[in-house]
Structures are given as C-alpha cells and as structure tokens.
Amino acid sequence: MSQKSKIQKFEPFSLPFFKITIGNWKTRKAQLLELVNWNDPECQFVDHFTDFHKNVQTSDRRAPYTAKFIEILKPELASFAKKVEGNIHLTGLWAQRYQLMQHMEPHTHGSKGYSAVLYAEMEEGHEPTVFWAPYQDPIAAGDLIHRPYAKEGDMILFPSMLIHYASNNLTQANRTIFSFNCDVQPSQKSAQLSRPSGNLNFLQK
C-alpha cells in the first residue's frame, strides 16, 4: 500500500521578546520621572531629548541615577532575570522624550544582550517602538516589522541587535521612555542544566 506524501512546517529560529507591566504604576512613574533633569540644555536635540550622550561620558557609561532606577524596578528586573535563566548586568541606562514631530532614526544597540524600552509617558495617539526582523519575507521579499502592543507603564525587552525606531510623535503630549542595555550571563545552575537562580548582578560599584 502506498503512503501519502506529507508536508510539515517548522520554525527553527526564535526571537524572544518580553513585556512586563509594572505594578503600582502611578507611584513608580513619579519616582522615575523625578530621576531626570528634563530641562538640561546639554540633552536637548532637534529630534528628541536624550541624556544618552552625556551619560556615556561618565566613568561607567551609565546614568548617575542607575542605582535608584534599579531599586525602583528591582522586582521586575528580577522577574526578567528568572525568565532568561541567568544574571543580568546593566551596561547602559538613559532617558528620552519626544515632543511634537520628534522621533528616533532606525538603529541597533549592538550584537549582544537585551535592551529595554520602558514607556513612562504614553498617551492616546502615541505609537510604540517599531522593530525590523533580521530577515525579509521569503515570499513577498519585503521587510517584516513588528509593532508590539504597549501602553504607559509597560516595559518591552528585546534582542539588542534588532533594528528599531521611534516614529514621529503626532501629538502635543510628551512621549517619554527609559531605555537600557544589559548583558545576560547564565547562572552556574542553569549552565549545569538545573533550576536557574535568576540572581541579579548589576555590577554596581
């Protein structure tokens, strides 16, 4: 007896994203926004406000408010460390604000680790970050893009090597984000194929 032919679809590659909705948001929003001098003239650019360039000039290339930021979001950072089964090390932290018609050009954050965008001020009419896949649609031959659903108080964590950008702010309301990069190092237990510790190691001095 002859057997019928079979076709099977499989997807060997994965690009894990994570979204964390931050609890007690009203209180923690106020705490986060107080960390930054939003009127600093050194951080005002044509396309947006950012303290990134100022922060990379510091000795450890991180914002002076890094320790306070970590303390505010420690439960959420711990949950991410547990999900990725390792220790996470913040290597950069900065804030950005987009006013009317301001935006961010397409860019990446390097070839290793995860990056995050935390939507600290996001109103109706604001678009979340737009991501480009690292490959094209094999049938239509076009770019594949992803616009994750996100609201104020959400934090999206994504592979740092992905091209992404912020579209023009078409409203009068500020669109404000915090962003950071982190290295992920497998814990000793996860390296031994056991239950991971999920410990946090932020390389704080």
Number of helical regions: 5
Strand order of the largest sheet: 1-8-5-10-3-2
Number of strand segments: 10
- Overall tally of structural domains: 1
CATH fold category name: Jelly Rolls
Give the helices and strands as they follow along the chain: EHEHHHEEEEEEEEH
CATH class: Mainly Beta
Parts with pLDDT < 50 across at least 5 consecutive residues: 190-198
Compute the gyration radius: what is it?
Answer: 19 Å
Which bin fits the share of residues in helices? 10-25%
Strand content bin:
25-35%
Mean pLDDT metric: 89
CATH superfamily: q2cbj1_9rhob like domain
Keyphrases for this structure?
single chain, about 200 residues, alpha+beta, Jelly Rolls, 6-stranded antiparallel β-sheet, 5 helices, globular
